[in-house]
Amino acid sequence: MNSMSRTMRGFILGIVAVLVFSVFPVFKAQAAEACTEPAWSSSAVYGGGNIVSHNGHAWKAKWWTQGEVPGTTGQWGVWEDLGACNPGTPPVDPPVDPPVDPPVDPPVDPPLPGSRMYVAYASSWNTSIYDLTTANVPNYITHVNLAFVRPDTTYAKGSYAFDQAVAGLEFVEGATTPNGQRKFTSQQSLDLRNNIAALRARGTKAFLSVGGWSYSQGSQWSGFNAKNIVDLAQDLGVAGVDIDWESSGSSCNKGTAAQFSCSKDGEIAGIITSLYNEINARNANLQISIAGWSTGAYYVKGTPFEEGKVQWGSPFGGTMYRVVKDHGSKINFINLMSYDGGIYYDPREGYESYKAIYNGPINMGMQIAPEGSGGAVLQLNAAPGTVYDAEMMNGQNNIATQYYNVETMVNYIKNKGKANDGFMLWQLWKQRVHQPAPSGAANENSAGQYVCRNLQLPGDCNQTIPSLPKL
């Protein structure tokens, strides 16, 4: 019995030893791998609240980010250091890496198939960064274009220098004043990015609008730097870049479609191509839109848009033709400036001229009066008896005022446009930063609500832009 007991004890001890040494490596591996959060990835997209591990620490994203290395963005940067990893940090689902080609928006806000856009340009002058809140921007507005950024900006990634001298934006927090240039504080920089992130989280994407009239009349576009623009866009957390190239020195030869060219075709083509290449090389997940001039696709010999076959022309007719026709695949959508043309300009013809050479979404533009030029006044409703698709491209310079109203343009896009064509508004703060619209004219709220209800935009069509004080 003693012999049997010794044998039994030996057998049991052997079994215990095998179990201990086979299980011990698992315990050891768990002790060495304390980080339960997913490892940070340079190609992944992170939203506010995502937690990752990097260099033995846990990090929480304060807002949308991609490619910014945890531990390098500083106290005011996107990554908050939660301290050394420990098994108690709540694990989260890892973010999904976006596809590399073609570039798409982050998975937090995918576009809806066949959905229409309503783009509103938000001028930054006489405006505060604290105006860009979900309470002040109706949720049926799908895109807010921050206007305007300098084409030749010297912005450096991680600097958060969003002031006018560097970025070009004219918010009061960073405006050029008679007493000098104001600079964004770290808190203001953070607040602006958080406001953009909050808009995006609820469904309104912000774009940087580069150029505009003021930044297009000098040599700014010749110094266009795609890298700096993408750096600025990423640091602000916007969804895309809008190119508002309004160079007035381009002249066109009025040739046939094959021979048609303008003197500055190379400049605008180079801008779009360099931006497109920069975004793709960095997998930056930014879209590209352009502000299409009203008559920018006119004056091609042998087409319905040849001079004399359209209602109204301009010295700049055709200046967007080559970039749209030859580089349209690099452009996600066009915001058509179908205004500022005077009483003979027909916005429907402007739309059709772009539609003839571009298959992507086109957003028909409306400008709240008073307009910058031309003297037209945008009305809400059409006059009795107006036929929305009557009297177009007939070779006669007939007065087209009766067709420049929200009702006619919406009916035209709904019945004659593509399923994903939408509208654009200049501008979100028009009556605040300029003078009120004339009595009886359409305003920011009446125009937007009409578009929302009749094109069935997502969101609450009863929401309004509040009357904000002038700054």
TrEMBL record:
InterPro entries (alphabetical): CBM5/12, CBM_sf_5/12, Chitinase_II/V-like_cat, GH, Glyco_hydro18_cat, Glycosyl_Hydrlase_18
SMART domains, per the entry: ChtBD3, Glyco_18
Q: Where is the GH18 domain?
A: 116-471
Please provide an example of a Pfam family that matches this protein in its UniProt record: Glyco_hydro_18
The record lists the membrane-crossing segments as none
What EC designation does it have? 3.2.1.14
The scientific name of the source species is Paenibacillus glucanolyticus
Please write the reaction equations for the catalytic activity of this protein.
Answer: Random endo-hydrolysis of N-acetyl-beta-D-glucosaminide (1->4)-beta-linkages in chitin and chitodextrins
Q: Which UniProt keywords apply?
A: Carbohydrate metabolism, Hydrolase, Polysaccharide degradation, Signal
Q: What is this protein called?
A: chitinase
- Listed GO CC annotations: extracellular region
GO BP annotations listed = polysaccharide catabolic process
The lineage is: Bacteria, Bacillati, Bacillota, Bacilli, Bacillales
The keyword Hydrolase belongs to this UniProt entry's keyword annotation: yes
